[in-house]
Design a protein that fits this description.
- The protein is α+β, with helices and mostly antiparallel strands and 176 residues long.
- Helix content is 21%, strand content 47%.
- The chain has three helices and ten strands, in the order E-E-E-E-E-E-E-E-E-E-H-H-H.
- The strands form two sheets. Strands 1, 2, 3, 6, 7, 8, 9 and 10 form an eight-stranded antiparallel β-sheet that branches.
- It is globular.
Length: 176
């Protein structure tokens, strides 16, 4: 299981950035929000989704993350230079905490949901989740948690893309 920081230090293509985060307690969301503003990247990152190229990382882009206190997921909205969401990337997680430097982190359970602005939801890395379980890297409970969380997100928060987008922008206003 990989530990991921909301500073996204593992993304080496981001060569200069601004990063801030804060804990918020609101009716609609309780947990950490984080913003990464990409000032310089060594090369833009373009992902291919069913034949369509989508830029997710380049200078001027921002990543806004929501790590709920009560939840087994982390949502990252990838915004272009105009503040439009190009993609949401949702990690299913086993646990979360704060590292030695005071930055929130989560323990990734491999399974991800990629959500397009048109409402299309793509499940990603189920094969990695299954392999991690087979190899004993995660427990049956963690495997089931990832699957259950992905299903609950699809049936709940992601079932109305317009409401999900409004929720994201509302939470974004807490940190901008």
């Amino acid at each position: 299981m990989k530990r991921k920081s909301l500073s996204y230090q593992s993304w080496k293509v981001i060569t200069r950035k601004n990063h801030r985060f804060q804990k918020i307690q609101r009716q609609e969301f309780s947990g950490y929000v984080s913003m990464i503003e990409m000032l310089e990247v060594s090369s833009p990152q373009v992902w291919d989704f069913r034949g369509e190229k989508i830029t997710v990382c380049r200078a001027g882009y921002r990543w806004f993350s929501l790590l709920p206190s009560e939840g087994s997921y982390c949502i990252t909205a990838m915004l272009d230079e105009n503040g439009r969401i190009v993609l949401w990337y949702i990690d299913m997680i086993a646990s979360q905490g704060i590292d030695e430097e005071g930055v929130p982190y989560f323990d990734d359970l491999y399974l991800d949901l990629i959500v397009r602005p048109n409402g299309e939801v793509i499940e990603d890395d189920r094969d990695e989740l299954e392999e991690a379980f087979k190899q004993g890297d995660i427990t049956r409970q963690q495997f089931e948690l990832a699957s259950r969380t992905g299903r609950a997100l699809r049936e709940g928060l992601l079932s109305d893309i317009d409401a999900f987008q409004r929720f994201t922008y509302q939470c974004l206003s807490y940190i901008t």
